[in-house]
Amino acid sequence: MTHRPTGEPARPVRPHPADAFPDAPPPEASGADPAVLTALLRRHGWERRGGAPGRYGRWTPPGPGTGTSLLVPAGRTFPDSEDLLAEALDALSRSGTPSAREILLALAVPSDEIRWSRDLPTGPGDAVAWTAEEQLRTAARRTLLAAALATRARAGYHGARHRRPAAAALDGVLVGPAPDGRGLTAFVPVATGRPLAVCLFHALHAAREAVDHRRATGSMDAFATAVGAGVSHELTEALVALVRGAEGARVGVDWAPAAGVPEGCAAAGPVAFTPGDLPVLLEAGRRYQRAEPSVTVTVTGAVVRMYRSQPRGEGLVRLRVLAGAEVGHLRVTLGEEDYRIAGHAHLMGLPVRMRGRLAGRSGFRRLTEVRQVAPVQADEAERDRLLKVLQESADDFGEAFGPSCGS
Fold first, then answer.
1. Across residues 289-316, what is the average pLDDT?
2. Count of domains forming the chain
């Protein structure tokens, strides 16, 4: 099994199931809202070209010679409204226009749309580097993960904290294709993901304002305030990855018409960043990482690995955290007596409890100044449960810590 490095996003968001859509029937007309369809057509650049005012509109896709024309009813008040809507949905499902697929899927699953675009230098035939698509997807994943982390807790530097629940929050997010590396769209279902989209909206605007403030005044104070809006080391690093190698980049949020615009999220265009912003974003990321304080915690965890280079003396222990910290695993250096206690607890299938400082410089992956190490008593049923959890999580140990305790 190949394990991802700990610093990378925990998992990619799922690709949009667009390839399967041409073989599937279009959404039922009875469940579609003509006003929502009209808003989606307008968002994707379709143009209204006539139609009976107040009854229906004729819509054509952007670009010349598409050969597609839709009659979309203005509402359901006329007898033929549902028939017109069904015909429009069927025509969309057969259309070769790229935006038709996204419109149909937005009707099927109301979603906020997050769009990334990059201005890339081109070569012959308007070609771009073959790595451009992966660079765009990586930056987009990191942007979404930063927003998911901020919905869990506001912090200038998250490190390893909250990574698993934040990654799990991206499970329902769908992404479309990015064939040329210039643009990518993620569809965040309103029912489960609107808090993430709202957080990202505020964080992007706060980051843009903080960069402008730094470039105008030389002060980084706005970045401290921006943490409350969701800006973090992780977000600045994601924006750096998006802009680096491009002539400019934009991120925008389009709200699902079926759900409306969230409170405090006035309609706004995409937020743009340029290569000139990179030094400020990099400086902000470093400051966030340095400034995030260590925290005192009492951790309960299961010993999953032990190592020391000599038969006696201190040694390194690795814990799978069960309670007391928002991280999955911790490295802990223990003195000889505490190391012996941890070893006995491991042999007996018992967790251990200890108090210490969760170090910010390690990404909150290391516990320092450790004291009060003691086994946690558990009955047989609880011990069996713990052993089962450890066995089910065996793959996670190498992922979190690498092949050896000394690494």
1. 88
2. 3
